[in-house]
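Format notes (please read before filing issues)

Several people have asked whether sequences and structure tokens are stored in separate files. They are not. Every record keeps both together, in the order shown below: the sequence lines, then the token lines. Line labels are part of the format and must not be stripped during preprocessing.
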Amino acid sequence: MPIGGEKDTTPPRVVRSVPENYSVNFEGRLISIEFNEFVKLDKINQQALISPPLQKNPEYRIKGKSVQVRFQEDLKENTTYTVFFGNAIVDLTENNPLEAYSFVFSTGSILDSMSMAGNLQFAFNKKVAEGAFVLLYRDENDTIPADSLPFRVKPYYVARADKKGDFRFRNLRNEPYRMYALEDKNSNFLYDKGGEAIGFVDELVVPEYVGSYDTQKSDLAFVDTVGADGIKTEAEAYALSGKLADSIFVSKHKKHQISLFYEVDSTQRLLRAEAVRNGLLRFAFRYPAANVEIEPLEALPDTLGLLKHYSKKKDTVHWYFRDNVLDSMKIAVRFDTLINDTLNISLRPRAAVTPQRGRREEIKAGVLAYSTRIAGRRLDYGQKLIFTFNEPVIHYQMRDSSRFIAKDDTLYNSVEFLKYDSIGLQYVLNVPDFEFDGGYSLLAPDSIFFGLNGNVNDTIALAFKVPALTDYGNLFLKINPEITGQMIIQLLNPKEDVLEERIVNGSTELAFEHMKPGKYKFKAIHDRNGNGRWDTGDLVKGLQPEKVYYYSKELEIRPNWDLEEEWDLSADAEK
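Then the structure lines:
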């Protein structure tokens, strides 16, 4: 069989169109664009945008080698329209897309020639907001407040951010606009608060023309100063047609940087109430629940032994209790003084998934399970030996036959554990701090910890080592904020988990000592209101989210090595 030759990697090419691209005085409702090969449309309704938007979506059809756009309504007079196809036009055989193709025409005698550009990022982590929309509204509405426009009115112009978060408007009218950015998940070009991210520019924005006028030549000449495809072609088309609108000539665009954020819905809600396993209920809330009351609607027997425990962020409440006392429980949840939820919860968890063959159950029946921070027979310097149990310990009694070895010193029958939290989920070994390059072992008998449900521990036999000082590195970071107000400096791992947090005011030097070798990042939050955390924005109040900065380099900590870095936050703030 013939192999068919090399794979086609060339996108379709426009041969001609009726009317021509960048035409004026358009009449009718049909546009036909012919290509050099057969094409098809890929997710055209999701990718195609028309600025200014129409009340009804046009109909897109394939006819031979042509794409037809048939409008379902009369177009506005003296208006420049842009049909942006995205990557929806692909060839028939290999799906090669004609990337970011636009078709521009005017229903009047002039093509609008102004443009704007910018970039979209999410405010909290500065991630690129690929696919988010930028919305422009003409500053002509005196009946609807500006902060209500994204909720109630469809925009006059729409653009979409690319893979780098960059966006660009072309063929705009020369007038001021209000600019918003929207993560439009349902493609209705309206802001649906709660599930969508929003962003805005504080002031009115004015479009520009990117080009320069050469007075040494007899004809108009335009220079593409941005480097984006199509600008020079547009300018030449305008010049040749003699149909330029009034334009401002500048050397480059002012780049609008918009930060998207999710607004806070301040309503407290119970997100989930469930039996995690026998003897444990979990209540998960939207926000910290320190002021939430969760109370049984019926008297509980003393034998239930109910113990309550908050998570570190206080947004989750755990109820530990003795199994096999009750099958269900009626509970009231009060956020203020009113009962917001009344629940009848089964105390039996849903059937667990059967373990795969060859895997043994981690928790044996009747055994009180625990975990420690020892990993690979290693406990990092500065950490205590803390035992975290899977249920509260209600009784602890040490017996003889215990042993603790610290380097060459051995203690017999003098091992002691201390309660480390309020309900006995954690106990700590009561010994002096562990030293660098020290080897330790612990032997403690079984049945010294008694859990709420009568489970007891197995014999505890642990051996571990604390690494040597030379196994760690040190990092010294000089901070030059030059920004008014409090800054939160966060040390992150590559996954952006917060490892450590410092508060600074003004220039200072931070020391991070005894760091494990690996890669780290730094993030700074301009804590505008001084509450010690990042705060999102508020569209109606006109509040931008608190600014976030990332140190430009990912830092690598090496063993027995000091690293010194300097971070000029004021330079980042000017970008």
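For reference, the curators noted about this record: The first helix runs from residue 44 to 47. The chain is about 5% helix and 40% strand.
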